Amino acid sequence: MADIKVLIVDDSASVRAALGDIIAVEPGMTVMGTASDPYFAAERMRAELPDVIICDIEMPRMDGITFVQKLMQQRPLPVVICSSLANAGSPAALAALEAGAVEIITKPRLGTTQFLLEARTRICDAVRAAAAARLRPRSRIETSRKLTADAVLPPPGRRTALQTTDRLVAIGASTGGTEALRLLLEALPADAPGLAIVQHMPAGFTAAFARRLHDLCRIEVREAETGDRLIPGLALIAPGDHHMLLHRSGAQYRVEVRQGPLVSRHRPSVDVLFRSTARAAGPNALGIILTGMGDDGARGLLEMREAGARTLGQDEASCVVYGMPKEAMRMGAVEAELPLARMAPEVMRFAAAEHSTAPAKG
Question: Which member of 226, 259, 260, 290 lies 3.0 to 4.6 Å from 173 by CB, making a disulfide possible if both were Cys?
């Protein structure tokens, strides 16, 4: 297998050198080139295209977010943002993800070179995840209505505060999941079943991510807190660096947020959410595993299916990284694979069914 070719774009010569040293000694990776700003990067790419770009945000002549936006519109390439501006929950970090960046590494303003050396494993893992991404061109204004079957969805409505729920949905995602979740949740009506969501994100990012989704969606979206009740019209997102578990008390479902060891190399872990959902909800739950690198969630989704829950996996064609759904499919945890466009209608079909029914084929 050929080495992953990396282009480093940063206006700091010391950062370029530090990143270059890290990539140069990592097996399976090579530094294709470096550039001090996006214009020089564009000139370099005329001769050869990289497999992955590591890019700063704050640069002369063109900022990194604009650079990512232009790439995704014209020639999509996987981008890892490495910037001191992309701190946890910052508008810049969310803007970078929305623009199409695959991964984000936050570097401190001081001691940057030493931090990069200490973050060697994280940087290399981010490059590998980005190299596995499947990207498609984006229009300037991309809406979920391009991806939804509007005819099967209820019309838009106001957010409701229904008091009980019999059905719930547990969702797990990683690389590429921020965009996939946006498209899925935007397509849901105000009376969608309660949703518990784990998106692999560092601490601090999830609260801002939840607020952003809340502003875009008809359902309520917020970062989860221990004791929160899962009800229709509400999506709870696991806080970064905390696991989220589902519990049942009588007819009510509530979540617990807690620290703990890494599970499947992650905290929050999709496996933790799925396994607790299998025990608490059984056949009253629908499990969905979306785009992501690795295998987190596969075993938990299998437990959900064995407990009588319905289980769906995002299909390869619509995934940014077909890793987590592929592993879940391989283990027999996925009842049906669907394109992202069909997830929201299937959620509502599940919620409306008097008895659990298999996902519609086709």
Answer: 290
Residue 80 to residue 230: CA distance in whole angstroms? 34
- Do 45 and 80 have their domain in common? yes
The domain tally of the chain equals 2
Pick out the chain residues at pLDDT < 70.
1, 88-89, 108-111, 138-165, 354-362
Tokens 């939804």: give the residue.
148
Specify if 360 maps to a domain. no
Residue 319 to residue 300: CA distance in whole angstroms: 20
Cα–Cα dist 303/328, whole Å: 11
Q: How do residues 84-106 score in pLDDT, each as one tens digit?
A: 887 756 778 888 888 889 888 88
Q: Which residues contact 280 (CB under 8 A, 6 or more apart)?
A: 246, 247, 248, 253
CB-based contacts of 287: which residues, under 8 Å, 6+ apart? 169, 170, 171, 172, 274, 277, 300, 301, 304, 305, 309, 310, 311, 312
In a domain, 268, yes or no: yes
Q: Examine residue 205 and state whether it is found in any structural domain, yes or no.
A: yes
Edge-to-edge, what's the strand order for the sheet holding 79-83? 29-35, 4-9, 52-55, 79-83, 103-106
Distance CA 150, CA 25 (A): 50
Three-state DSSP at 256 gives strand
d(CA 293, CA 174): 7
Q: What is the pLDDT of residue 88?
A: 59
64 lies in which domain range?
4-131
**Are the CB atoms for 254 and 281 separated by under 8 Å?**
no
pLDDT at 145: 32
The domain that holds 329 is classified in CATH as 3.40.50.180
The pLDDT score that the predictor gives to residue 105 is 86
Question: What is the per-residue pLDDT for 95?
Answer: 84
Give the pLDDT score at 2.
83
224 and 78 within one domain: no
Distance CA 105, CA 205 (A): 12
Q: Do 182 and 329 share a domain, yes or no?
A: yes
Is residue 293, in this structure, part of any structural domain at all? yes
Instruction: Give the end of a domain, one of 83, 102, 131.
Output: 131
